[in-house]
């Protein structure tokens, strides 16, 4: 804990490391996925079960690459629509209740 986070206290070094790791992690996952797809699309796949096979590898058809890119674009468009046009729809409604120390919230 001392080496990775800088100690047990939540302070500036701890938060800096936390936020930097959580910012870098998605890019690392996307990079690994990109390398995986690039190698899979280049060499194809054969012998997934370990059986003896002496046939040529089948190239990954461009249809699947285009389909993957199109599906990613549709997903990104949907997420972007929610984020940019309806940002409060997936939030906690309790965050929109005005603060009033004299009133107990309805959910309690």
UniProtKB/TrEMBL annotation:
<protein>
    <recommendedName>
        <fullName>Cytochrome b</fullName>
    </recommendedName>
</protein>
<dbReference type="InterPro" id="IPR016174">
    <property type="entry name" value="Di-haem_cyt_TM"/>
</dbReference>
<dbReference type="InterPro" id="IPR005797">
    <property type="entry name" value="Cyt_b/b6_N"/>
</dbReference>
<comment type="function">
    <text>Component of the ubiquinol-cytochrome c reductase complex (complex III or cytochrome b-c1 complex) that is part of the mitochondrial respiratory chain. The b-c1 complex mediates electron transfer from ubiquinol to cytochrome c. Contributes to the generation of a proton gradient across the mitochondrial membrane that is then used for ATP synthesis.</text>
</comment>
<dbReference type="GO" id="GO:0008121">
    <property type="term" value="F:quinol-cytochrome-c reductase activity"/>
</dbReference>
<keyword id="KW-0999">Mitochondrion inner membrane</keyword>
<dbReference type="InterPro" id="IPR027387">
    <property type="entry name" value="Cytb/b6-like_sf"/>
</dbReference>
<keyword id="KW-0249">Electron transport</keyword>
<keyword id="KW-0349">Heme</keyword>
<keyword id="KW-0408">Iron</keyword>
<comment type="subunit">
    <text>The main subunits of complex b-c1 are: cytochrome b, cytochrome c1 and the Rieske protein.</text>
</comment>
<dbReference type="GO" id="GO:0046872">
    <property type="term" value="F:metal ion binding"/>
</dbReference>
<keyword id="KW-0813">Transport</keyword>
<keyword id="KW-0830">Ubiquinone</keyword>
<feature type="transmembrane region" description="Helical">
    <location>
        <begin position="69"/>
        <end position="88"/>
    </location>
</feature>
<keyword id="KW-1133">Transmembrane helix</keyword>
<keyword id="KW-0679">Respiratory chain</keyword>
<keyword id="KW-0812">Transmembrane</keyword>
<dbReference type="GO" id="GO:0016491">
    <property type="term" value="F:oxidoreductase activity"/>
</dbReference>
<dbReference type="Pfam" id="PF13631">
    <property type="entry name" value="Cytochrom_B_N_2"/>
</dbReference>
<keyword id="KW-0472">Membrane</keyword>
<dbReference type="GO" id="GO:0005743">
    <property type="term" value="C:mitochondrial inner membrane"/>
</dbReference>
<dbReference type="GO" id="GO:0006122">
    <property type="term" value="P:mitochondrial electron transport, ubiquinol to cytochrome c"/>
</dbReference>
<keyword id="KW-0496">Mitochondrion</keyword>
<feature type="domain" description="Cytochrome b/b6 N-terminal region profile">
    <location>
        <begin position="1"/>
        <end position="49"/>
    </location>
</feature>
<feature type="transmembrane region" description="Helical">
    <location>
        <begin position="20"/>
        <end position="40"/>
    </location>
</feature>
<dbReference type="InterPro" id="IPR005798">
    <property type="entry name" value="Cyt_b/b6_C"/>
</dbReference>
<feature type="domain" description="Cytochrome b/b6 C-terminal region profile">
    <location>
        <begin position="50"/>
        <end position="108"/>
    </location>
</feature>
<keyword id="KW-0479">Metal-binding</keyword>
């Amino acid at each position: 804990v001392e080496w990775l986070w800088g100690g047990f206290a939540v302070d500036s070094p701890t938060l800096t490391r936390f936020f930097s790791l959580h910012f870098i992690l998605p890019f690392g996952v996307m990079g690994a996925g990109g390398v995986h797809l690039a190698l899979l699309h280049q060499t194809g796949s054969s012998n997934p079960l370990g059986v003896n096979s002496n046939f040529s590898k089948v190239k990954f058809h461009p249809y699947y690459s285009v389909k993957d890119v199109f599906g990613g674009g549709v997903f990104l468009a949907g997420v972007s629509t929610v984020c940019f046009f309806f940002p409060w729809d997936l939030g906690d409604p309790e965050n929109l209740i005005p603060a009033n120390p004299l009133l107990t919230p309805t959910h309690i």
